[in-house]
Structures are given as C-alpha cells and as structure tokens.
Amino acid sequence: MLYFHINLLPGKQHITVVEIIHLLPYSLKLSAKSMKSRSCWLIFTLIGLSLTSCGQQKSSQEIAETVKNSIVLISYQNESGHGTGFIVPGSTGVCTVLTARHVVEGRSLNLQTNDQKLHKTNSIQASPNLDLAVVTFQSGGETCPYPSLNLGDSDSVKQTDQIYISGFPDRAGGGKLVRQFVRGSVSGLDVLEQGYGISYDASTFGGMSGGPVLDTSGKVVAVHGKTDAQIVADLQSQQASLSPQQQAALQQAAARVAGGGVQINTFRWGIPIKTYLANQSNLITKTDYSKLEQLLAAGKWQEADEETANKMLEVAGRQKESWPIKEAVENFSCPDLRAIDQLWVKYSEGRFGFSVQKSIYQSLGGTKEFDMKVWSAFGKANGWLVNRKKGLKWLWLDDFSFTFNTNAPKGHLPVSTAWVSTELPVSTGWGSTKRGGGYFFVLNLFSRADTCKL
Asked: Domain ranges in the chain?
C-alpha cells in the first residue's frame, strides 16, 4: 500500500475526497471508467493516507481562544482572594462550573464569566474526599449560554507531554484580575490523597487553582490544584493513613520541597479528569434549588420548609407517594442532600439544617438504632417536644405549632421532611399528632447525612 502525507494550507481544517484525488500523482489518478471497478482499492488507499487535519494538534493560540469563554472567575463575597473554574456539561437550566474544593469550601461566592457578567450561585457541591467541587448558576434558559470544555482522556497523558493551564493569578497590589494562559509539561504520574495524580512544571500562581489543565488538542485532562509544598503540608498530617504507594509519592514530593532553592514549588498538581467523571454522580444535583434559596434568603421559613419537602420527594421520584423509608432515604442523592443542607445552614447563620440537627442528636448519644430516651431528649432540645403547661405531659408538636422564625431553638428547622412518611399508624405515639413514623425517617436521614459527610 502507498501512503502519502498531505500538508493543508494554513487555516484549512478539512479536505474532500475529490481534492485528495486531485492531489494524487498522475499515475494514480483513476479514470471515470475504472473508478467503479477499482472503488475498493481507492477506499483502502484513502484509509492509508496520513492527513495532518486528522487528530492534529491545535496551536496554543487556538486553544487559548477556544477556552476563554468557558473560564469562570470565582471570588468571595466577604473576604479577599479568588480562584478559577470552568464550564462543563451539566443539568438542564443551569451552568455547571468545575473547580477545586479548596477554592469554594465554606465560602459565599461571586461568579464572573468572560463577558464580565456576574452570576449568583445556585448550588455548591464539594466532594468529601477529593479536591473537587461543582458550582452551578442559573443559565437563563434550558441550555447554558457559555460553552462547555471538552473532557479528554487523562489516562493517555504521559510524562513530558505538553499541557496548558488557564486561570486568574493573584495580582500584587490588587487591581483588575487578568486571565492568563500558560504552558508546561507533565513531570510525573503519581497517586496522592484528595485525587491528585498528574504533576507538571508550569508558571502558575495563587488564584489559578480550579482552572483546566488542557492537552495539545484543547481537551481537559485535569483540574489544576495545589503545589508540591501545599500537598506535602496536607499529607504529612495524614501520613499514617496513606497507602505505601501514596507514602512513596509523598516522600518524593517532600524531598523536592526540602531541597530548597528553585526546587521549591516547582511542580504543580492536578486531579485527573477521569477521577471527576468517576465521581460525577456525587457532585451533580438532580434538581434546581433556586426557589428554595429565594425563600430562605427572604426569611420565609415556612414556605422554605414546604419547598424542602417537595424537592426531596422530587429527587426521590416520590411526588405522588409517601416515603419508602429505607429505599428512598438510605439511597438519597448526596449532592442534593448537601445542597439543601448548605442553603439552610447559610441563610440561618448556622441555626437550622440537617447537619445541625444531626449534630444535636449525636451529641445526645443518638445512633441509627431507635432509643426513646434519646429521641425524646432530641425533641426537647430542638423544640419538637414541648410542655405547654407545667405539670402536663410533654407533647410532640403538630403541623401548625412549629416556630417558623429564627427565634426557634437551634435545629428546629427544617421539619416537614420529618413527617412526610405515613407508613406507621399515629397510635405509635412517636411522631407527629397528624402523621406517625417521623422518627424512623429522621434516624435514617441522619444516617444518610453521615454517609454524605454533612
């Protein structure tokens, strides 16, 4: 078989079969009469052609131009500092931003796209074990108006491969942040804690964390995170729990940092995009919580409580049915549970939320196993079990007696989710006066909250 290498003209991305035939040497051009009888020969000849347009590498300028509208500046509402994120495919009705967990964890965010528009955060989902997080904001329609970056194959990355990183580095003295696009090369492929697995030498600086690491075709192969020094500091506190492979990688990184001079912080690390894809279901919410956030921000606690119950039933696909306790609660979506909890905690300033309730319950010795004394103590602590008049029996509040304001005891809300089950009869005496079995739901919910690391 004969092979030919055809160089395309600058700016030309495609070539047709007719153009290929015209480019062949005269002796190989086929007449119209012989074309039909020798079509198979032509097909296999064309398969053998090596075209620079097929799988060709993009120039750094092309890649920089492609990614600029997908990069997001992540800044903070009540403190200085910032990070970077980038648009990835996600749910309908929102734009989904992938970034590093340490960029967003515990913070109220501002999101700014390349068109200088500011967007209000819809949800923040941080992985409990990986330095990854997903932030969403309203798209204004079914599809996000900002392009998603293409996700590549991080398993194909090799040492010395060229990579690019885009993000917003810190600026001395403040001032407008300018997006930068830098080049580097892969220096190592190790496995460290928090999902880190690709190291590279590149001129990155604080503020670029969470940005995309791109290969020469412009596809994302990693999420940019921390330097050697930062990872060493993180891992040394966890050394006893590391695997032998992770300890070996830690020792190598520690040796580089301890070397001093120009070796300090030479290597940067990213989380392979394969790690994100494998854990995507733990980071992407199934529904939109913008209405819940609006209600909580406005202090409409009762309406927010009802919206919480509705959204939980929606996520579980049980809008027209009661909760099947074990199936629905024990398998409830962790990203959605975290999203709801984070909104309640945020707008109540730490007073309400599932995580707050769980903390109170566990502080009283509560476990997944039902204990009437612990359950009663929990009800008294968060105001669900009350003694209206001295000397009378303590009573569980009914649906109309809860306190829907910030004067309520800590952990009082949300509450409607505790009573959505109708599986047990009211005569059990351990639940709402209108609906029984609430405590079973709550105990399973707290167990799921533990699993989801609320």
From this structure: 5-51, 57-228+270-284, 290-451
